[in-house]
Amino acid sequence: MPKCDGYKTKQREVIEKVFALSGGHVTVDSLLEKLNKKGESVGRTTVYRTLEKLESEGKARKYISSPGESACYQYISKAHQCSEHFHLKCESCGRLIHIECVHITELSKHISDTHNFKVNNLKTVLYGVCEECAVK
Amino acid sequence: MPKCDGYKTKQREVIEKVFALSGGHVTVDSLLEKLNKKGESVGRTTVYRTLEKLESEGKARKYISSPGESACYQYISKAHQCSEHFHLKCESCGRLIHIECVHITELSKHISDTHNFKVNNLKTVLYGVCEECAVK
DNA sequence: TTGCGTGCAAAGGTTTTGCATGGCA
DNA sequence: TGCCATGCAAAACCTTTGCACGCAA
Asked: pTM for this one?
């Protein structure tokens, strides 16, 4: 449960707004870029701290791409609240693909029943090769 | 196909040996520790380069844990050659759990057929909470 | 002898932390 | 006023790269 959002500041407001409007996935860098394009000046540290806070409040999810590569954040809108989706990460082009699919739930159930492990679909990333890269 | 293993050196030999005997998963740091305990002196760079080489030769797999956290390598013994296994990562205790299960293959097939994405089971990590941590 | 392997030091990139300043309540 | 938020600079962290030296073949 999110308890207190803390103070409402200009920076936090604009970060959340741009993040929410981004729709897809965002890195600290890409978010800073978007902010710069809007003429908003926010420190990198603040973006890191705000995204961290949003994650702990359940308003964002953090994804891992590769070590050395920057982390990827996804804004959690109401449309994304469902648990029957997950992500595919292309090892070739690095793209993170969003998928809605009930089959992951079946696998999760099986793993929970048989292997005593509760899978967090929302955070799980399946690695592989996307269609476009497979063609090449 | 592994083409040429290059020169056979003392370092490469001892790294492969300790890595193979480790059984489970290894980070560059933990491998260096094991080497130190055995009185073997190997440079950190060499460990990085050797693990990278082993991965490209198909003798090791590299896993991503978290950004900032070090990468995790698994030695591929004959017992681990099958493709019907994958890994679970506990978000609570950080443990990486190895699982053999045909169900992942079914999901992979579905994703391949329906979503045109070829999943690499060997590299995929499902996030969640392990049994022990769930009890707490 | 040839050229790959090694390892130190330094650089590269991402993320975190210390600290003084500034703004919300 | 009190306390949190901000942002610069610096540190921490993992990993890669440059380069001179050493060793395998």
From this structure: 0.71
